Amino acid sequence: MSTTYNLKMLRVNLTDQTIKTEDLDEKLAKKFLGGRGLGTKILYDEGVATVDPLSPENKLIFINGPLTGANVPTGGRYMVVTKAPLNNMIASSNSGGVWGARLKYAGYDALIVEGKSEKPVYLVIDDEHVEIKDAATLWGKTSEETEEALKETYGKNASVLNIGPAGENLALLACIINEADRAAGRTGVGAVMGSKNLKAVVCSSKRTVVEPYDKEALRETVTASLKLIKENGVTGTGLPTYGTAVLVNIINNVGSFPTKNWQESQFATSEEISGEMLKEKFLVKQGFCHRCPIGCGRVINMNGKIVGGPEYEPLWAYGANCGLDDLEAITIANYWANEMGLDAIGAPTTIATAMELYQKGYITDEDCDGVPLKWGSSEAIIEWTKRMGLGSNPLAKLMASGSYRLCEHYGVPELSMSVKKQDMPAYDARGIQGIGLTYATSNRGGCHVRGYMISPEILGLPQPLDRFATEDKALWTKIFQDLTAVIDSSGMCLFTSFAIGAAEYAAMINAATGTNYTPEELLVVGERIYNIERMFNKAAGMKPEDDTLPKRLLEEPIPDGPSKGEVSKLHILLPQYYELRGWENAFPTEATLKRLELL
Amino acid sequence: MVEVRLFAYFRDNRGKILYLDPNLFPTVQIILDHLGIKLSDVQILLVNGRHSHAQHLLKENDIVALFPPVAGG
Ligand code: SF4
Prior knowledge:
Chain A is of the alpha+beta class. Chain A has three domains: about 10-205, Aldehyde ferredoxin oxidoreductase, N-terminal domain (Aldehyde Ferredoxin Oxidoreductase,  A, domain 1); about 245-420, Aldehyde Ferredoxin Oxidoreductase Protein, subunit A, domain 2 (Orthogonal Bundle), CATH 1.10.569; about 430-595, Aldehyde Ferredoxin Oxidoreductase Protein, subunit A, domain 3 (Orthogonal Bundle). Chain A has a six-stranded mixed β-sheet with strand order 2-1-6-3-4-5, sandwiched between helices. Chain A has a six-stranded mixed β-sheet with strand order 8-7-12-9-10-11, sandwiched between helices. Chain B has one domain: Ubiquitin-like (UB roll) (Roll). A five-stranded mixed β-sheet of chain B has the order 2-1-5-3-4, with no helix packed on it. The interface between A and B is medium-sized, with 42 and 22 residues.
C-alpha cells in the first residue's frame, strides 16, 4: 500500500564518515506523526537529553512530516530537532521553502546527523546517492554566498540549507537558512550544525511526487481545505496582501507592542514600520514556500537588490523594541541577520537588551567600539547584527549568546526578556493573558508559535476571547499547543490553521498515510508530542521554576496606553493548566504518561 | 472629534485617518455606514485600544481602529 511516509531515514556519522539508510517503524511514525513529534521521540530514545548540546554526542535531526512533499496546501515544511545549546532543552525549529520536500522526494523521512567532522564538510543528497564533501572553500561564507556557490555546482534545482558565519562561530543565536531567507530560526540549531563542522546540506531528487494511501480521498479533502483557505479573509486576502507585518499596527493599537526592551508597550511611530508601509515602499511581490496557496513571504527591493523582506517579528524586534522607526535600516539589518545565519528574533531582541544595558550604564562607550548602542540608532542595529554574526569583538561575542547570558554577565538577568533563556516575541503578555501562559509553558522557551493565543485574544479567531481575563485561558492554551504540535509534525504550515481545523488535518493525514484518526484522536497525538517534549526537558534537567515569565511581566505594570496597569496573572493560570495537562510540579504524572501511551 | 484609524485595505480610497464629530457620528456603526464598510468585513474593532462593538457610543477624543481580516504570527 502507498503512503506518504518513505519509511526510510538517512543516518550520517561525521566522526567516522559513515552513511547508512535505515527503516522507519511505521507504527512509531504514526504514533508521533513525524516532524517535531517523531524527531523528539527519536532523540529521547537515543539518550540525547543528557549530552552536551555542542558535543559530538548531540544529534541533529532534519525531519519531515507525512504531508511534507504531499499534494496538500503548504505541504513543504520540515523541522530541525536537536538538543538546544541556548537552554539545554528540546530544540525544534520549523522551516519552509522547498528543502523538506526535496528530502522527501529523495526517499527519506529524516536525516540524522551524528558525531563531528574533523574539518568543515557539506553533505550532498541526490536520491540514493549521498556523499560527504570538503567544505574548505565554503567556510566563512554568508548564507547567500554559500547557496550560490553550491547551486553553481549542483544546479538551480538543488535546494541548499546552510549555516552562515554565526553557526560556524557557535553563536547560540545561530539559525539554519534554506532558500536564502527561510529559517529554522530559534534555540540555536545553527550552532549545533557548526559544532559538527557541517556547513551545508544540498538536496535534490528526480522525483516530484509521493504517492498517498488514498489518492481520491486526498484529492477530495484537499479541494475542500483549499476552498476554505482561499475563501478565508486572513489566508485568502490578508496574509497574501500584507504578510505577517500587518500585525504591527494591530498589536500597537491594543498597547501590547513591547517597546525599548519591554519598558513601554506602545510605539508612537509604529506606522513607519508597519506592514502597510512595507507594502507601499519596498514590496516587489509575494514569496511562496513549496505548494503554498497563501504566500505570506515578502520579496522586497532593498536598494536595488531583490531580497526576502522582514516578517512581523524582526520589524518589531529591530524597530519598536530598539526604539527605531527607520524601515529601510530594518530591512538591511534583517538581511544581514539572514546572511550571518542569526535568529531574526533573538538577535535584534538581544540588541534591544544591550540598548537598555547601555541606557542604564552597564555597557560603556568603550565596550561599544565606535558604534554606541543607543535607542533608535540605525547604524547600531545593522553594525551589531554583523558583529554578532562574525563575533568580531568581545561584546558582540557575548551578545551572540543571547540576552540572558548578556544580562547575567552584568549581574542583571532580570533585564533579559526571556523564558528558559529564549527571548520572547512581539506580544506583551501583560495585556494578553493567554499568550503569557503559552510563553511560560513552551517546551522550547519564549515562543509564540507553540500555541498562538493571539488568534482568539486579539484577532478574534476562531472566536473572540477577552484578552485581560483568565477564565478558560488554560484550556484554550492547551488545545492550541496540542493542535500546533500536530501541525508542526504533519509537514504543513501553521498559518493554514487560520482557515482549517483538526477535522481537515485529520482527513488529510488519514488519506495520505492510511491512519484513521478522528479530530479528537489527533489532538491526543498532539498532547502526546507535547508530553514527550516535556519528558525530554525533564531528563535534560529542566526545573519546575523554569515555567515562568520575567519579573518585569509579573511585577511591573504596563506604564501607559490601552493596557495600562496590567501584569501577567500567571499565578492563577499555571495551576489550572497543570491540572488540565495532568502534570504535577510541571511534569506529567505516571497516570498521564500511561494515558498517552508514553509508558 | 473622534479619531478613526483605518488599516490594511480599508485605507483604499478612504485614507488612513479621519476626524469625525461624535455628535454627528455617535456610534461606530454610523461611521461604518458613512465609510461604506460592512460590519461583517470588520475583523477587529477597537475603541481606545479595547475590543468593542458597533453600537459603542462615542465621545469626544475617542479613538476608533478598524481592521479587515488580517493576521500573522
Ligand atoms: S503561509 Fe507563508 S510561511 Fe506558510 S508555507 Fe506559505 S509562504 Fe510559507
